[in-house]
Fold these 4 entries.
Entry 1:
Amino acid sequence: MAWSDPDGWLTRAWSPHASTIIITALIVLFVPIILHVLLYHSAPSHTLPSFLLLGPSGSGKTTLLAHFETSAFRQTHTSQSTTTSRVSLPSSTTPKSDQYRSVHDPALKSPKNVFVTDTPGHAKLRHVALESLKPIQPNAKKATPKFDGIVFVIDSTAVNPGTSALEQTAEYLHDVLLLLQKRHTRAKTSRHPPATPVLIAANKADLFTALPADMIRKGLESEIERIRQSRRKGVLTVGSTEEERDDEREEEWLGEGGDGAFEFEMMRESDVKVDVVGGSASTGDVTGWWEWIANQM
């Protein structure tokens, strides 16, 4: 029976038969529902941007978080556990995603919120923060937290060349950058994890003894270079072959593919951009840090 015959399927589809009406009604009712369910479950859920506060003890992380929350100085104490707060960007700061919106867009008037997680900076408790930066395991039962950026707070009055404070700060920063590098290089797929920018927030810049951002940058780079040279000599596993030892050295070598002395620019190979911006959490000079956070949104 041809499709053009009076009893053909195409003719019946356009005829006022009861079966045709029922099938059409079912299609109209259920197809939109099915499409909605499929698209809703396949689309990624929208979550607020999240930023991680790291840094040695006494650098001012908790004070900075308190200022983000209340826009005022508040006396704080040394944190011993991780704390996450939901804070709002100042009205004078525009997220990068909103820079090209029309001034009449009502979305510009809605508050822009972010999650900021403060972590303990004491050497015995740093593993809490570093645990969240470890490379993503393909069969891990617990998902690795995702951060849109890391704010590494330092005391700009204490990182003078040759001091133990500079050494301890650089060691902590070295470990953070190395973990971010491993997250990138250990990706099991051709699609690498999202880039994780790092802001070195040089706190207490209002004090007379504070170093400028450029000097802090060079001092940290020089100290990290000393640390990576020292650690590369010590990364050896007993009983391993020479080839395995070379792999171990390469695994722990910060700034993969970078020749010469260490510079933060080497981290771009691992999709890690490092910025150094001065400010002061106690006096409210945090505009530069807010602008950096807004540029990652």
Entry 2:
Amino acid sequence: MPALCPGRAADSYVFYRYDLSLPAAIIFAVLFGISSGLHIWQTWRKRSWFMTAFIIGGLMECIGYIGRILSWTDHCALSHYIMQTLLLLLGPALFAASIYMILGRIILLTEGEKFSLIRRTWLTKIFVGGDVLCFIMQGAGGGILSSAKADPKKKDLGEYLIVGGLFVQLTFFGFFVIAAGVFQFRGRDHLRALPREITWKKHLNVLYLTSIFILIRSIFRVIEYLQGNDGYLLSKEVFLYVFDAVLMLAVMVAMNVVHPGDIAIMLKGKRDNFVELESPPGTKSQPADPNVSV
């Protein structure tokens, strides 16, 4: 365990209770950076601007691990600690926001709103609203905790807010997975009858997979903060990489492989075909916006 920082009391808040791994921080900073760069290119090429929050989350992960690299050079620097703590804590909330929007577009693409537990127009609003609440609570808690120093009241308040925000995330995400499952179960006959070129199933399967990864990561974070700064999970760096870094990178890579921008392309194709069929002869059809609000 690293020595206490100069001038800091023995009972003060300890930033790291282990020796930081420089190679691990570099590897994940690079991998998150590569995946984020690929997402930027894919989103621009497919005009899937609803993935913007996802990209920001990936960049936050990348910069967060750069913060851990900087902390390796000086583990006593508060700015480096705040940088990595907040960004790694908040990045997945932005992943969640994009995942919520993806389900709305799958429902729109398959014309399956009647099978949804929640109206499509409300689905994204409800879940993204919960995600914003989670983001604010975790951000406030992380900020308070990062500046707590030796103040036990501030430390407890910060941890309570973070845990509360994580519980909000778990609640909304759990209900979201149920809503997606209900949609698929109710609409199973309708979905099977769709044309083969409407590849809804692979996108829904990736949505389930990434949701499970985020749920596991959130459960890990809840346990981590419930144990406290001197708990077992926060005293071993390997847990951060196994239950956070690897899982969140897997979320990003899965979305690289099966990019939701394909849904936007399919939606645009359906709308263009509809306009061509419905427009009077000689009229010029207007391009459809694949990023219509859901």
Entry 3:
Amino acid sequence: MAKKLIKKWFPAYESVRAHRALGLLGPRLRAADLWHLNRRSVAGAFAVGLFVAFLPIPLQMLLAATIAIVVRVNLPISVLLVWVSNPLTMPPIFYTAYTIGRWILDEPRRSFQVEMSLEWFAGDLLTIWKPLLTGSLLLAVAASLTGYIVIRLLWWFSVVERLKLRRARLHRRLVHSQQNPYARDRRPAADRDIRDNAPGRNGPPG
């Protein structure tokens, strides 16, 4: 169930392997454990992807893939989750991070506009980088921990529900077999005749 949900949430899962930006990592992308869908790998990938998504840096996909390779977690999910930070969400994310960082560092407020361009990184970012980076790191850590814990819990609930369904099916089969005596013994007829007519089974042989 959990694996089906992951593939439903991430329709571009298989396309990550062919992404040009990740070609720089070479044969490392072919490591089998980077594509596993298990509780540890997926929860770790959420932690990596969400952490990188909140960092105000370029080449987030490449950084997420590199970290995923180092810590051996699911690479496609790590890479796809950096798109939490996209042209639509970057302005509110960066503004929130800057506000938090400015409050922590007690710095005066500055007006700025987020643009993913070299001019912005060389201009506005240089004047607000300290509070922006401080707030971004806090948001990144919070998002990373939240994603990791939530996925671990959801995976655990998924396993518990699957076990409950399995037990319910077994219980229904048991009740059905008790209510239908003809369904209790499913041995082939020849085996039943041999075993039921064995010496001592139905009294002493005549």
Entry 4:
Amino acid sequence: MSVIGIVLLGSVPFLFNGMNFDTASYLTGIEEVISKLLHPSEIMYQAPDFINRPIFPLVWDFFIYSSTILFSAFTIAVVLALIVALIIFLLPESWIRKIRVSLFMLDSFPDVLVAIAVQFFVIWFFQKTNFLLFQVVSINGAKTYTLPIICLVILPFMMCLRIILLTIGEEYSKQYVETARSIGLKKFRILWRHVLPNALVSVFHHTKTILWFMLSNLFIIEYIFNIKGIMYFMMLTKKPEIFTVCMLLMFVPMFLFFTAGRLITSKWEGESI
């Protein structure tokens, strides 16, 4: 159903004839996109030298570049959020409440503002010290990873941390925690051995939303840092069939990851699928 949805979305340009809807053209466009997807080696794009070339295997370079940035940032955000959440829950309750409020406020910062602020900081630091912390943009084919990953990590990290804190807080209100406390178990042992494993199942289901949020931010990151990634390639070509191929390349790995995760967490919870 998701693949069908991507095909229908990729065919939307055929739906419009000026300012009017053209249903017949849309249906023809869907048929054309599906036909080209069945023969991917024949899908062409116009290179900067105005020569038509097949998108494969070139599109793999764009896909790998974007995927490396996206999934590296996602992994760092989740792991870092888990570590920070464990530290926070060892603090006094009054501190935890203040941190939750702060995270809610910081979570509302625009993505573009964060990326530009980090870029300006690196440039300002270079001007003051003549030492370049990270490559600011991709130039002349040189690929930059560190700064885009940092910018892509910040907001998802805060989102994930807020979700983990909320989930762990809900687990702490359950009866088994009171039972563990009554038999003398230490706070960290309860958190690590009992609360966290139960909370991770719920956190996993929220990470799907976070990853899709990061995918939408990836377009902004690629534009700001002049990254020649999958989003750049889609905007460069602007063809329905190429848009559809690129979206499928990004969707399928995510689908497989979350399907595998759902199978694992369902078995973990003792559910049957």
